[in-house]
Amino acid sequence: MVDRIPYVVKEVVDEASDVKTLKLVPESGPIFDFKPGQFVNLALHMREGPVEFLSKPYSISSSPANKDYLGLTIKITEREGSFPKLVATLRPGDKVFLMGPFGVFTFDPVKHKDVVMVAGGVGITPFHSMISYATDRKLSNKLLLLFSNKTCSETIFYKEFDELAKLNPNFKYLCTATREEGDLSLPIARGRFDQDRILQACGGSVEGKHFMLCGSTPFVEGFRDMLYAMGIAKDHVLYELFGSGV
To answer: Whole-model pTM?
Structure first.
């Protein structure tokens, strides 16, 4: 059985109206080691009800090089099930439990020399960890982020990515919004990613690039099939699906 490691909520950050980042610190000892892109099971102790703990998997959004806190960025909506409602009640000082880390959807600095990261909505979380890690470690890997949201206001971490791009000359990003809503002052492109927009963002060629996709099942499967149609080899496309749960 995987151990439940006690952590304490250090801070709760509102990233958007329905997205929060929990900054967690260990109750004792250091933050456990993990690879950028991995996830943990977040477990909450139930004071009432038939079960002692409820848990749900979430990607770690902070960098493994960040020893100040471990970040989990979580969407709080009805569609995500009942568990996020419990997350929304957490306050600094509250105790939670983590199990993990788990997962093979990870950034490999040796293998991924030239990688395109494609995120839909809150599927951005593992990429935030990867990009932050590459910047923290001053890696020379070429990183391109293609980030799609419904509206500009849902584009979380935008200002952070702007700062990371200033710190890391090997990191570029393009954010798009499919609806004309939200903060239209942000320099965010309108519309969806298609083959032409992908090719343009990649500098006219996708040769030698690895693609990593994360988001909802329809988003990821649609993007994956579009990459296959562009001639991208299947072993150059790694993806992770974010789904709803209880």
So the answer is: 0.92
